[in-house]
Amino acid sequence: MDAAGTKPFAFFQAKPHFGRMTQPLALVFYEKLMPGSQLVNRLQDLNYRVQAMNDLASFLHCARSEGPMVAFVDLESKESDVCQAIAALKSDTSTQHIPIVAFATERAAELQAAAQKAGARLVVSETALLDHLPELLSQALQVE
After folding, report:
1. 10 pLDDT above the threshold of 80
2. Is residue 16 part of a domain?
3. Is residue 134 part of a domain?
4. Could you tell me which residues come within 8 angstroms of residue 115 by beta carbon, excluding any fewer than 6 positions away?
5. CATH number for position 118
6. Is the pLDDT confidence value at 74 over 60?
7. Is residue 109 one of the residues assigned to a domain?
8. What element of type H or E holds 17?
9. Which of 98, 112, 103 is nearest to 133 (CA)?
């Protein structure tokens, strides 16, 4: 008690938790271990929360339900038409804002052209993806 007979009370001052801010979500679809797992690791090193999957149905569902900041897709799928999935995301009002970075080997020029036509923001080679990931992320996330 203080001199006036009142009971003091404590003030709670919240401290900012800059390191604990919500990490942005990146979705990654890939079937080949390389470069898929390397991409996941690099994104985590850049403080992204990553959900990786190897089937397009799960990828599309997750894109609709989780609200990722960016999506990465390996165009060279043996099981699915990745360009069709890109077009589906771009035609859906709930997912059309998600920037999609598509990647493939250098010899997959037809797939790369189809991905651009389907709506991928960036289409790059596997090598460029890993070598220039921070720059590619910056470019993909620019507001048009």
Report:
1. no
2. no
3. yes
4. 73, 75, 82, 83, 86, 102, 104, 123
5. 3.40.50.2300
6. yes
7. yes
8. none
9. 103
The first and second tokens of residue 4, run together, are 């006036």
Distance (Å, rounded) from C-alpha 83 to C-alpha 118?
Answer: 6
Q: How many domains does the chain have?
A: 1
- Residue 124 placed within a domain: yes
Burial of 80 (0-12, 13-18, 19+ CB in 10 A): middle
Going along the chain, which residue ranges are E strands? 25-29, 49-53, 70-74, 100-104, 122-125
Give the range of the structural domain holding residue 116, as residue numbers without chain letter. Answer: 26-140
User: What pTM value is reported for the model?
Assistant: 0.83
Q: Which of 135, 142, 129, 131 has its CA nearest to residue 72?
A: 129
Q: Would you state the structure tokens that stand for residue 59, as one six-digit string?
A: 């990828």
How far is CA 14 from each of CA 8, 23, 78, 110, 122, rounded to the nearest angstrom? 19, 20, 51, 54, 41
Across the range 94-114, mean pLDDT stands at: 94
